[in-house]
Write a structure and sequence with these properties.
seven-stranded parallel beta sheet, alpha/beta, Rossmann fold, about 240 residues
């Protein structure tokens, strides 16, 4: 896909991987509108020249408000990047159920709801793309964050099914599977982390090349391990 002049709606675009994706898409000439929850970060991105929408995607009302604000505007690329990480570890005490609910909605329900709401607009474009950012942990889970892993695995399977549904349409369905990236979400994680700029670069290249799937960094090794033995892959990630 040629990105110049493409209209992009990018969720979770005010920090981390999303911020770097927004900047790199802008360099390619795309017209990026990004969402986020932090007013200060959104203001900073607005000063960089981006259109911004404050949106809480952890509940249906927040997603519907975003869709209402977007209205009937056209969209060439829907990039579902926003996500939440929640610890859910009974070894450390009793987890907070509401926190799990927010994570499940933001990571799984919100992308599905946005895709459903924007599908009519995407179908009208000569060429369009839906990009779902999942995780290497959609392949094999980490013990400390089973809610996050379950949501990303759910989004992965949704993406695979959606791609099959739309294979003969104008819409390319792309999945990006990052490793552990050096973002605020992973503060305190001792694992070696990929710079967000490089992760974003590989996602943008995948959009340009119309790839169905991009396994980034250590996710490539995890996919090799999974091909050899799913139990081997789980043995690697469950320790974290």
């Amino acid at each position: 896909m040629e990105l110049a002049d493409k209209i992009v709606l990018l969720t979770g675009g005010s920090a981390g991987i999303g911020r770097e994706i927004a900047r790199q898409l802008k360099e390619k000439g795309a017209k990026v509108t990004l969402t986020g929850r932090n007013p200060e970060r959104l203001s900073a991105m607005h000063q960089e020249g981006f259109e911004v929408i404050e949106a809480d995607l952890s509940n249906a009302a927040g997603v519907d408000a975003l869709l209402k604000e977007w209205g009937n505007k056209g969209v060439d690329v829907l990039l579902n990047n926003a996500g939440q990480l929640v610890d859910h570890d009974f070894r450390e005490g009793n987890p907070v159920a509401d926190a799990a609910d927010d994570c499940i909605y933001a990571n799984l329900n919100a992308p599905i709801r946005l895709i459903t709401g924007l599908m009519p607009s995407l179908r009208k474009r000569p060429q369009a793309a839906i990009v779902n950012v999942t995780s290497g942990l959609a392949i094999a889970p980490a013990a400390r964050t089973p809610i996050y892993c379950a949501t990303k695995s759910g989004l992965r399977f949704y993406t695979l099914g959606l791609r099959e549904q739309l294979k003969d349409s104008n819409i390319r369905v792309i999945e990006a599977l990052p490793p552990v990236v050096d973002t605020q979400m992973n503060d305190g994680n001792p694992t070696k982390k990929m710079p967000p700029e490089e992760c974003a670069r590989q996602i943008v290249v995948a959009i340009e090349r119309n790839q169905d799937e991009v396994n980034i960094g250590m996710t490539k090794a995890l996919r090799v391990a999974e091909a050899i033995s799913p139990a081997l892959a789980r043995g690697i990630t469950l320790r974290f």
